[in-house]
């Protein structure tokens, strides 16, 4: 293997400096500030503060509203990750069967990923608005009393659908790339041996896709926990009755709306620990089932 030798020892650090600065300013510095604020009790204007230790954490963990947000987050994250990955895998498999127009099909599938989360949420809200939504009218004709602005379960279904639709394109790209990397000779050999397409998929294709699936599992979990804030804010604002208030949205509500800085900081630290622990668990236990060929 060829080694790269830089003419000056300082040059590698200069090349890394922009990325290191971005990581320090936008990741480590906010995390450090969150840890500092989580052990303080501050007034909304930051004019005075008092060290309270772990009191903010105890208050948050004993708050029924926070426990409700945790339950909502679990349900929301599982549903979004499952449907976004399942539908994307199905579409990726189907596109491989297309002979003509495959490039156009892929392009149309990728487009939704360019839509901002808040815009995606507004699109779904306009389509399913109980008063003037174009897709709400057929639901009423079917006898469904559709009103996600008042019904918590319907609101959850709406934000899950919007978040899933937004993420399908991302998953689709990686699944298509994974399918193209599978040697065609394996599928041809399976067909010669008499294996059906369904059996070939579950015994050959899916096991070889497990590295891609594992990567997307981690990415979709983080997406559901953090990147869906804009969708929830645009569609339901955490309502009705906090039925769609996730952990990240509660951090925003307590910190930026209600100006309870200590509680909001403690919640962000807890959420950070949850994400790190969940990612470590996925790498430690789920990765063992991944086949890298």
Automatic annotation (TrEMBL):
Q: Where in the cell is it found?
A: Cell inner membrane; Cell membrane
Give the top-rank taxon of the lineage listed in the UniProt record for this protein.
Bacteria
Provide the alphabetized UniProt keywords.
Answer: Cell inner membrane, Cell membrane, Membrane, Transmembrane, Transmembrane helix, Transport
PROSITE patterns the UniProt entry points to: ABC_TM1
- Lipid biosynthesis listed as a keyword: no
Which portions of this protein are annotated as coiled-coil regions?
none
Segments crossing the lipid bilayer: 69-92, 104-127, 155-179, 200-226, 265-286
Question: What is known about what this protein does?
Answer: Part of the ABC transporter complex UgpBAEC involved in sn-glycerol-3-phosphate (G3P) import. Probably responsible for the translocation of the substrate across the membrane.
How does this polypeptide assemble, per the annotation?
The complex is composed of two ATP-binding proteins (UgpC), two transmembrane proteins (UgpA and UgpE) and a solute-binding protein (UgpB).
Family assignment from sequence similarity: Belongs to the binding-protein-dependent transport system permease family.
Give the matching PANTHER family. Answer: BLL4140 PROTEIN (PTHR43227), SN-GLYCEROL-3-PHOSPHATE TRANSPORT SYSTEM PERMEASE PROTEIN UGPA (PTHR43227:SF9)
Q: What is this protein called?
A: sn-glycerol-3-phosphate transport system permease protein UgpA
- Supply the gene name: ugpA
């Amino acid at each position: 293997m060829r080694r790269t030798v830089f003419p000056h020892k300082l040059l590698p650090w200069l090349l890394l400096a922009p990325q290191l600065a971005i990581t320090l300013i936008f990741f480590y510095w906010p995390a450090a500030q969150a840890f500092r604020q989580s052990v303080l009790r501050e007034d909304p204007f930051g004019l005075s503060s008092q060290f309270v230790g772990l009191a903010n954490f105890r208050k948050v963990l004993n708050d029924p509203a926070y426990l409700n947000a945790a339950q909502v987050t679990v349900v929301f994250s599982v549903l979004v990750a499952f449907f976004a990955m399942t539908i994307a895998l199905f579409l990726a498999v189907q596109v491989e069967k297309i002979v003509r127009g495959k490039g156009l099909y892929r392009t149309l599938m990728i487009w939704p990923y360019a839509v901002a989360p808040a815009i995606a949420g507004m699109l779904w809200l306009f389509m399913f608005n109980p008063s003037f939504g174009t897709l709400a009218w057929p639901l009423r004709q079917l006898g469904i009393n559709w009103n996600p602005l008042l019904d918590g379960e319907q609101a959850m279904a709406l934000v899950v659908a919007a978040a899933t639709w937004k993420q399908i394109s991302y998953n689709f790209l990686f699944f298509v790339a994974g399918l193209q990397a599978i040697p065609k000779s394996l599928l041809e050999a399976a067909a010669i041996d008499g294996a059906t397409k369904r059996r070939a998929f579950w015994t050959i294709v899916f096991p070889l896709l497990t590295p891609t699936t594992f990567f997307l599992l981690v990415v979709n979990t983080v997406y559901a926990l953090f990147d869906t804030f804009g969708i929830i804010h645009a569609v339901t604002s955490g309502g009705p009755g906090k039925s769609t208030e996730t952990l990240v949205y509660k951090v925003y509500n307590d910190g930026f709306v209600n100006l309870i800085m200590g509680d909001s900081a403690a919640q962000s630290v807890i959420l950070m620990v949850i994400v790190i622990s969940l990612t470590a668990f996925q790498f430690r236990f789920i990765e063992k089932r991944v086949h890298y060929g």
